[in-house]
């Protein structure tokens, strides 16, 4: 099984953090490649991307100031296959990535991702009161998995809150 490469650079607007790669993502070498995953549709419908991207264009998100990584590197069929040890190791690696690349916002794609990273249990959607790593904003959004039972409109609405935190959103009103 292939390791899925991160798409990271310095001073990102948003770093999207998933649980771990799906088997399809590991097979193709692209993030959110499972055809049932709604990540790319969500980003577009929320106004985060100017057009609908596909998984094989995942590296192009860097041009928009968006990066991609996961808390655990091992691909699995489902997140419940991830071990406590993998989360513990992934938590420390993710902290180092955030400190090194200094994204403005870290968007955790799923409450469970943030629960594993922060060790907090009661989590709200959207901006979190305190960031785990100083210097960035923690934002929790629903998982984009097709298994999530939330309506697409509800998911998109939460991701739209993310657009309001982006620097360009604030600048538009001043022009």
Automatic annotation (TrEMBL):
<keyword id="KW-0227">DNA damage</keyword>
<keyword id="KW-0378">Hydrolase</keyword>
<dbReference type="GO" id="GO:0006285">
    <property type="term" value="P:base-excision repair, AP site formation"/>
</dbReference>
<protein>
    <submittedName>
        <fullName>G/U mismatch-specific DNA glycosylase</fullName>
        <ecNumber>3.2.2.28</ecNumber>
    </submittedName>
</protein>
<dbReference type="InterPro" id="IPR036895">
    <property type="entry name" value="Uracil-DNA_glycosylase-like_sf"/>
</dbReference>
<dbReference type="GO" id="GO:0008263">
    <property type="term" value="F:pyrimidine-specific mismatch base pair DNA N-glycosylase activity"/>
</dbReference>
<dbReference type="InterPro" id="IPR005122">
    <property type="entry name" value="Uracil-DNA_glycosylase-like"/>
</dbReference>
<keyword id="KW-0234">DNA repair</keyword>
<feature type="domain" description="Uracil-DNA glycosylase-like">
    <location>
        <begin position="5"/>
        <end position="160"/>
    </location>
</feature>
<dbReference type="GO" id="GO:0004844">
    <property type="term" value="F:uracil DNA N-glycosylase activity"/>
</dbReference>
<dbReference type="InterPro" id="IPR015637">
    <property type="entry name" value="MUG/TDG"/>
</dbReference>
<keyword id="KW-0326">Glycosidase</keyword>
<dbReference type="Pfam" id="PF03167">
    <property type="entry name" value="UDG"/>
</dbReference>
């Amino acid at each position: 099984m292939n390791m899925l490469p991160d798409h990271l650079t310095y001073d990102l607007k948003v770093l999207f953090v998933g649980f771990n790669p799906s088997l399809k993502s590991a097979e193709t070498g692209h993030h959110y490649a499972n055809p049932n995953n709604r990540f790319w549709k969500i980003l577009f419908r929320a106004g985060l991307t100017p057009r609908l991207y596909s998984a094989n264009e995942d590296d192009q998100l860097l041009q928009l100031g968006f990066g991609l990584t996961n808390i655990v590197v091992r691909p699995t069929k489902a997140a419940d296959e991830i071990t406590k040890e993998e989360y513990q190791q992934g938590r420390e690696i993710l902290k180092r990535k955030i400190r090194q690349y200094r994204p403005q916002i870290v968007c955790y794609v799923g409450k469970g991702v943030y629960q594993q990273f922060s060790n907090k249990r009661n989590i709200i959607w959207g901006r979190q009161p305190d960031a785990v790593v100083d210097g960035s904003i923690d934002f929790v959004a629903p998982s984009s998995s097709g298994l999530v039972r939330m309506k697409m409109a509800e998911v998109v609405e939460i991701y739209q809150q993310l657009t309001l935190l982006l620097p360009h959103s604030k600048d538009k009103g001043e022009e």
